[in-house]
Amino acid sequence: MQEIHDLARMQELSLAGLKAAFVPLDLAAEREGLFDYRVYVAKEDQPVGFVAFTEDELAWLYVHPDHQHRGVGRALAQFALEHMAEGDQTVEVLAGNEPARSLYRSLGFTEEQLLHGHMPGNEEFEVSAWQMTRRQD
User: Fold this and answer.
1) Residue 121: pLDDT above 90?
2) CA distances (Å), 113 to each of 19, 22, 79, 85, 93, in order?
3) What are the angstrom distances between the C-alpha of 103 and each of 69, 71, 121?
4) In angstroms, what CA-CA distances link 60 with 85, 91, 137?
5) 39 backbone φψ class: left, alpha, beta (φ>0; ψ -120 to 50)
6) What is the spatial distance between Cα 94 and Cα 42, in angstroms, rounded to a whole number?
7) pLDDT of residue 57
8) Looking at residue 92, what DSSP letter applies?
9) pLDDT, tens only, 6-63
10) Which candidate, 60, 83, 108, 115, has a CA 20 to 30 Å from the CA of 77?
């Protein structure tokens, strides 16, 4: 999972203009409580992506760059959404990460508000992120 996270996270941060905020998975998992979430791994011959979520929040979704644009991220997100509780489901997407916003829009999420604050796990960096919600009535 380390390589998946580290390569995909660097892509994500680059899109948001925040490359300097990169923290490798071994630190990020501890600082951001990765294992407080339900974590599932997508495997082909080896792990290619992972997702982590709670009852109402899709919190982590990373796919190894060599396996992107093949439906892995969509499949992981759909799996998470199917295993989350009924009701509103949320995800936060860094401003500038248009591929992620596009994926979540295609899964029924809409942008609720642009939040401003500090990077979870690396609070010295200011960040903007879209709070997106998928409403289920």
Assistant:
1) no
2) 23, 24, 25, 22, 11
3) 11, 10, 24
4) 17, 9, 24
5) beta
6) 23
7) 97
8) E
9) 999 999 999 999 999 999 999 999 999 999 999 999 999 999 999 999 999 999 999 9
10) 115
